[in-house]
Fold this protein.
Amino acid sequence: MNAVEYETVQIEKTDKVCLLCEDYAKRQASKPIVVMCCEGGCLMGEVARRAANVLCSEFAREKTARLCLGGAFTKDTGQRALARNANRIVAIEGCFIECATRMVKGVVPGLRPEVVIADRLYDFDRNLFGIDEMPESRLNAHAREVAKAVAARL
Ligand code: SF4
């Protein structure tokens, strides 16, 4: 395997605080598993995002905390603390690029998420890319397939 190379980014700091988000992060901190997701804008990312939501709000609601990727990546507040302090963290990635994992590893050194490549868990026409190229019902069905498969591993 080639040596890992890094790219340096500068994230503009903000003093804005969402109190609802901070309260949520505190409430979720006692849950045993944190779930993050790439939140990508293509259909693979959309399926992953929906899968993470179904997993955390329905299939494994009691044991999973749904991480806000943007909040964790851009601010050192409650969401990043959720990732940093997680005993177990699962990354549902839309595809092999693994954006959520690489992003959060950049701000939480030593993070070792269990990575799930969502688009390997369902069948679809791989010539499709945009969210508008797949019917809503198929996006939801694939998201539920992924969430079910991840739930079975928890
Ligand atoms: S992991 Fe794939 S689908 Fe998700 S944001 Fe990255 S490139 Fe997009």
About this structure: Strands lie at 33-37, 64-66, 88-93, 114-117.
